[in-house]
Write a structure and sequence with these properties.
The chain is an alpha+beta fold and 433 residues long. It has helices at 41-54, 122-139, 208-218, 222-238, 282-296, 299-318, 323-338, 398-409; strands at 30-35, 60-64, 69-73, 81-82, 102-107, 110-115, 198-207, 245-252, 266-273, 343-350, 361-367, 375-382, 385-392, 415-422. A 7-stranded mixed beta sheet has the order 9-8-10-12-13-7-14. A 5-stranded mixed beta sheet has the order 4-5-6-1-11, with no helix packed on it.
């Protein structure tokens, strides 16, 4: 039934996250939404229940078998949890969330939404977030209207929303020609998990117009500015050798292969900050970064990367081996892949809501945990503000301070807010109800 049931269908690639934990890979991202008014838990839970009717493919859980993790339908009531991200730590997919592979929490005026990466990526999960927020505002009696940007209760679910996007690549071959063969990267000293799984997050916020105007003036994209600034800050602290800093960057495949799917549908590319960049003016570094990105984001190369990774993960998921061995193999594949690079940069882009919702939703951001890396950077924007959320494993703020100094040199005036971040747990052996 699982193979043919569109409500249980997920993608080929992200199944590997089922076999990992929060300690081996960043598999539980957090989205934070600050509201104008104090959150009403009863109305929020009602909104989640409504959103699940619109997104029935989110009504699943995972369970272990002798050889694999499998999905099954979850008809338990949805829960919303008291959640400040620090004092109480939950396990996603367990009895804490009634088995659901997403978590919705609240604290004062803030809503938190998290998901296990095996069921979605950032762009996909934002569709669910939009529906929950819209329904919540309606339930609270606010005069909000769907301008067509929300997959709300006034729209119908389509089986394509749970499609395995990578199936579009089946029985096709792509060439790896032109893919950069990366050397060994600069790495920070190895870090160890504390018992509480705590990290530190710094939100770096500034007017998007300041970055846009600067980037436009030299003919580059915002990412071609932000990524080198972060990599330079990392290089200043941990580099100084002949090795490049290399950022791992996920690329959304929906623009290449249009689909309504909210499942995981990305591939990864590598972006270097070469040692010779240390002696170049900023604008030249940004232009070279733009050129490198353009070269490495050719359609053929991206689809080669996507198919190779998805095929490998699907093959491991379907392999006939004891579950314990499969978990060990999957975790090695994942950590080896992640640790080839210096750290990860994710750009989820602009979070959009209908204009009628904007007065009640004051701020939005997302966080990617570090897991085995010392840093992770997530870029998002909402309204006229851009936010860089830097997660790290210690209290040494030099990298963040240097990143902010680099922004100021370009005429961009950042504001910072740092706070503790306790990562939500995940372990597939604790899933199900």
């Amino acid at each position: 039934m699982t193979m043919n049931d569109p409500l249980l269908r997920t993608d080929s690639y992200a199944k590997i996250f089922l076999y990992n934990t929060h300690e081996t890979v960043a598999c539980v991202p957090r989205h934070t939404i600050r509201m104008r008014d104090k959150v009403r838990p009863d109305k929020l839970r009602e909104a989640v229940e409504q959103a699940l009717l619109r997104f029935p493919h989110m009504m699943l859980t995972a369970e272990p078998t002798e050889t694999a993790f499998r999905y099954r339908r979850n008809v338990q009531p949805a829960v919303v949890l008291p959640f400040d991200g620090v004092s109480t730590r939950y396990t996603i997919g367990s009895k804490d969330t009634n088995g659901y592979l997403f978590l919705v929490g609240y604290h004062d005026k803030t809503i938190y939404m998290e998901y296990q990466h095996s069921i979605s990526d950032g762009r996909g999960f934002e569709e669910f977030i939009r529906c929950v927020l819209f329904q919540y505002l309606k339930n609270c009696g606010f005069p909000v209207e769907n301008d067509g940007s929300v997959r709300g209760m006034d729209t119908r679910w389509s089986p394509e929303e749970s499609a395995n996007g990578y199936e579009q690549l089946a029985d096709r071959e792509f060439s790896p020609d032109g893919i950069w063969k990366k050397p060994e990267a600069v790495h920070a000293p190895e870090v160890q998990w504390g018992a509480d799984g705590s990290e530190v997050v710094t939100e770096v916020t500034f007017p998007f117009s300041q970055l846009h105007d600067y980037a436009k003036s030299i003919g580059v994209s915002p990412l071609s500015v932000l990524a080198p600034l972060m990599m330079k800050a990392f290089d200043d602290k941990f580099g100084g050798t002949d090795k490049p800093v290399i950022a791992e960057i996920p690329v959304d495949l929906r623009p290449l292969l249009p689909t309504l799917t909210t499942r995981y549908f990305i591939c990864f590319i590598d972006l270097p900050y070469f040692p010779e960049y240390r002696d170049l003016p900023n604008d030249e570094v940004f232009r070279r970064t733009k050129a490198f990105l353009k070269d490495q984001m050719q359609r053929e190369q991206l689809l080669y990367r996507a198919k190779a990774a998805a095929d490998r993960c699907e093959s491991l998921h379907e392999a006939d081996m004891p579950l314990a061995e499969k978990m060990q193999a999957a975790q090695k594949v994942t950590t080896d892949f992640v640790l080839e690079d210096s750290f990860l940069i994710t750009n989820v882009g602009r979070f959009a809501l209908p204009e009628s919702c904007r007065p009640y939703v004051l701020d939005y951001g997302a966080i990617l945990p570090c897991a085995v890396q010392p840093f992770a950077l997530l870029i998002s924007s909402y309204g006229d503000k851009m936010k860089l959320s830097v997660a790290q494993r210690d209290h040494d703020m030099q990298v963040v301070e240097d990143l902010c100094a680099g922004l100021r040199q370009l005429g961009i005036q950042p504001e910072t807010l740092s706070y503790p971040f306790v990562v939500t747990r995940y372990n597939g052996l604790e899933c199900g109800m």
